[in-house]
Specification:
Keywords: Signal. The protein is globular and about 65 Å long. The termini are far apart. It is 20% helix and 37% strand. β9 and β10 form a beta hairpin. The strands form four sheets. A four-stranded antiparallel sheet has the order 7-1-9-10, with no helix packed on it. It has a four-stranded antiparallel sheet with strand order 4-3-8-11, with no helix packed on it. Strands 12-13-14-15 form a four-stranded antiparallel sheet, covered by helices on one side. It folds into two domains: 143 residues, no CATH class; 140 residues, no CATH class. With 310 residues, it is α+β, with helices and mostly antiparallel strands. The relative contact order is 0.13.
Length: 310
C-alpha cells in the first residue's frame, strides 16, 4: 500500500500545474468590410460605444473613423475599444460577472461588421510546436470571437469569471431599491464635501487619488497637476438637489449623475488649454476627471451612511 501511495504521489507531481486566470481581455471593433479579403488594414465606423459591467455603465467612448492594422495569419484586428478586467475598478465581482458593449453608429443606415473578442490571461505560458521546428508561447487561455454583419445599433454581451478580483465588503450589501428625500439630501452633502477637496493645499485631493492603482500620484504632485488647474481658474461645484439624478440598479451600487445624463460636476474643458504644456494639461485633466467623473457610484453602508465607491 505504501509503495502504491508513493507511485500516485510521483504521478501527481509530474503532472503540469493548472494555469490560473489572472485577467480577462475584451476587444470591440466596428469596421467597414474591406473589398480585398487580404487587406492589411480596415476602417473603423464612427459612433459611440458604451461598456457596461454588471449592468452598470463602466465607460463611454466616441469612435472616429481611422485605419486599424490587420495582424497575423488569423487576421486579428487591432481593437477600437480595449477593456481589461483588471482595470474595471471595484465594481468587478469575485466570481461571476457580465460585460455588455453597446455601439451606436453615427450613420444608422450604413452596413458594417462588428467584432467582439475575449481572451483569458493566465499565469503560465503554453508552448506549441508546429512540427517544423518552430514553437510559439502564449499566456492566453480561453479565447473566443463573435462577429456579425449589422446595420444600426449592435449589442454584445458575455458572462465571465473573475476569481482574481478583490472581494469588497460592499459587494454583499443589500441592493438599493429606493432613494428617499432624506437620502438625496445626504447625497448632496456628500457631493459638496467632495467638491471642497479641490482647494489649496490639495492634500486631501491627492490622498484620494492615491486610492487609484493606475495613477502615479508622487509624479502628479511633483508636476502640480491640481495646482495648475486651480491657477487657471478651474473650479468644482456640487450639483443642487434639482440637478441630481439617482439611477437605481437593483444592486448595492447607486449611480449619481446630472439630470438628463449631464455631468455630475461640470468642468470647463476649454480652461485646460490655458495650462502651459500638453503633458501638464493631460495631467490636470486626468486628476480632475478621476476625482470628479461624469457619473459617480455610491453605496449605503449598514449604518445608513453613503460612501463613494473609489
Amino acid at each position: 500500500m505504501r509503495i502504491l501511495f508513493l507511485v500516485v504521489c510521483l504521478l501527481l507531481a509530474s503532472l503540469p500545474a493548472t494555469a490560473a486566470v489572472i485577467n480577462v481581455e475584451f476587444n470591440f471593433t466596428p469596421y467597414f468590410a474591406p473589398a480585398d479579403p487580404t487587406a492589411k488594414q480596415v476602417d473603423t465606423i464612427p459612433g459611440k460605444a458604451v461598456v457596461y459591467l454588471n449592468n452598470q455603465v463602466l465607460a463611454e467612448q466616441e469612435l472616429e473613423k481611422r485605419d486599424l492594422p490587420v495582424l497575423f495569419e488569423e487576421r486579428e484586428i487591432s481593437p477600437a475599444v480595449w477593456i481589461l478586467a483588471s482595470s474595471m475598478g471595484s465594481g468587478l465581482r469575485k466570481g461571476a460577472n457580465s460585460i455588455r458593449v453597446e455601439f451606436t453608429p453615427a450613420n444608422p443606415s450604413q452596413p458594417y461588421l462588428a467584432r467582439f473578442t475575449w481572451s483569458e490571461v493566465t499565469d503560465k505560458e503554453t508552448r506549441t510546436d508546429d512540427g517544423a521546428g518552430r514553437s510559439t508561447a502564449t499566456n492566453y487561455g480561453g479565447t473566443g470571437k463573435e462577429e456579425r454583419p449589422v446595420k444600426g445599433k449592435v449589442v454584445f454581451e458575455r458572462g465571465f469569471t473573475a476569481d482574481f478580483a478583490v472581494d469588497h465588503a460592499w459587494h454583499h450589501y443589500p441592493p438599493i431599491t429606493a432613494v428617499s428625500p432624506a437620502d438625496k439630501a445626504s447625497l448632496i452633502a456628500l457631493l459638496k464635501e467632495r467638491a471642497t477637496l479641490f482647494k489649496p493645499n490639495f492634500a486631501a485631493a491627492y490622498k484620494l487619488l492615491e486610492k487609484q492603482p493606475n495613477l502615479t500620484v508622487p509624479a502628479m504632485k511633483k508636476a502640480k497637476c491640481l495646482e495648475n488647474a486651480y491657477k487657471v481658474g478651474i473650479r468644482v461645484k456640487a450639483p443642487t438637489l434639482e440637478q441630481l439624478e439617482t439611477v437605481i440598479t437593483n444592486a448595492p451600487e447607486l449611480l449619481l449623475q446630472g439630470k438628463a445624463g449631464s455631468p455630475l460636476h461640470p468642468i470647463n474643458r476649454a480652461a485646460f488649454k490655458k495650462i502651459k504644456g500638453d503633458e501638464n494639461q493631460m495631467c490636470a485633466a486626468m486628476a480632475l476627471y478621476t476625482l470628479y467623473p461624469p457619473r459617480l457610484t455610491v453605496v449605503r453602508t449598514p449604518t445608513g451612511t453613503w460612501e463613494v465607491v473609489e
